């Protein structure tokens, strides 16, 4: 049995190397520390992510890890038809705050509340201002009806959350993201947890050690988000 690390406020670096962190059976690798932009970026580069914003912060690095290769996205006939109708418009980084707040307010089966707390929103909005966090928006009649947000570093995109108020709008956002990332040469989208929904869209689980190798390779390249 592995026990999580306990992080200290102000400690730099905040995490040991990825190979020195061992997840427990739930994927938990560390507890505590600070939810600052610098610490969040360090966590992702070492294979971990914050589970929620409530202190003490739980940091996870699950085994297996769900990833999606952008070109492997499975678009159904109905989704392709919807994207061609022209009723929905897609933008990138058009309303980051609106997307993350909508994700926080979305109801999810089996979850009594939201893990996207106000301090987490503040941190990711700062990461957006720093050019690290990005959003995809889906609009219908000038109303925000779906979207997603995450972090882009190297040739990896770290997906955080999606929402929709119009059926399939979040799928439209993910499809648009995959096309953009594929065109820019991104290696994968980190989907974090394995779910049947993500698997149906083309995501696959990989062993954690393989994920860490893929992560190192992706981070060895410059970020091309602005070139996409």
* CATH classification class of the largest domain: Alpha Beta
Largest sheet: 7 strands, mixed
Output the helix-strand order.
Answer: EEHEEEHEHHEEEHEHEH
CATH superfamily of the largest domain: Leucyl/phenylalanyl-tRNA-protein transferase, C-terminal domain
Total helix count?
7
Radius of gyration: 17 Å
The strands making up the biggest β-sheet line up spatially as 6-7-8-9-10-5-11
Which whole number gives the mean pLDDT? 93
Taking the alpha carbons of the first and last residues, their distance comes to 43 Å
Summarize this entry quickly:
With 228 residues, the chain is an alpha+beta fold.
Structure description:
The chain is α+β, with helices and mostly antiparallel strands and 228 residues long. The protein folds into two domains: 5-61, Alpha-Beta Plaits; 66-227, 3-Layer(aba) Sandwich (Aminopeptidase), CATH 3.40.630.70. The chain contains seven helices and eleven strands. The protein has helices spanning 37-45, 77-85, 96-105, 118-129, 169-183, 196-200, 208-219; strands at residues 5-7, 28-32, 49-50, 58-60, 65-68, 89-92, 133-140, 143-153, 156-164, 188-192, 204-206. A hairpin with a 7-residue loop joins strand 3 and strand 4.
Topology summary:
Layout: E1 5-7, E2 28-32, H1 37-45, E3 49-50, E4 58-60, E5 65-68, H2 77-85, E6 89-92, H3 96-105, H4 118-129, E7 133-140, E8 143-153, E9 156-164, H5 169-183, E10 188-192, H6 196-200, E11 204-206, H7 208-219
Parallel strand pairs: 1-2, 9-10
Antiparallel strand pairs: 2-4, 3-4, 5-10, 5-11, 6-7, 7-8, 8-9
Helix pairs in contact: 3-4
């Amino acid at each position: 049995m592995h026990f999580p690390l306990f992080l200290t406020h102000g400690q730099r670096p905040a995490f040991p190397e990825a190979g020195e962190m061992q997840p427990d059976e739930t994927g938990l690798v560390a507890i505590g520390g600070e939810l600052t932009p610098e610490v969040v970026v360090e966590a992702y580069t070492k294979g971990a992510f914050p589970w929620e914003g409530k202190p003490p912060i739980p940091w996870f690095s699950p085994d297996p890890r769900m990833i999606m290769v952008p070109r492997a996205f499975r678009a159904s006939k109905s989704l392709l038809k919807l994207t061609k109708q022209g009723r929905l418009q897609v933008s990138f980084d058009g309303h980051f705050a609106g997307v993350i707040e909508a994700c926080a307010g979305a109801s999810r089966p089996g979850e009594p509340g939201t893990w996207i707390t106000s301090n987490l929103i503040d941190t990711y909005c700062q990461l957006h201002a720093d050019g690290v966090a990005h959003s995809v928006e889906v609009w219908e009649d000038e109303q925000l009806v779906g979207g997603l947000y995450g972090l882009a570093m190297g040739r990896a995109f770290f997906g955080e959350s999606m929402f929709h108020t119009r059926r399939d709008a979040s799928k439209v956002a993910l499809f648009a993201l995959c096309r953009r990332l594929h065109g820019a040469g991104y290696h994968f989208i980190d989907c974090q947890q394995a779910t049947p929904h993500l698997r149906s869209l083309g995501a696959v689980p990989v062993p954690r050690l393989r994920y860490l190798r893929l992560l190192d390779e992706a981070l060895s390249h410059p970020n091309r988000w602005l070139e996409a």
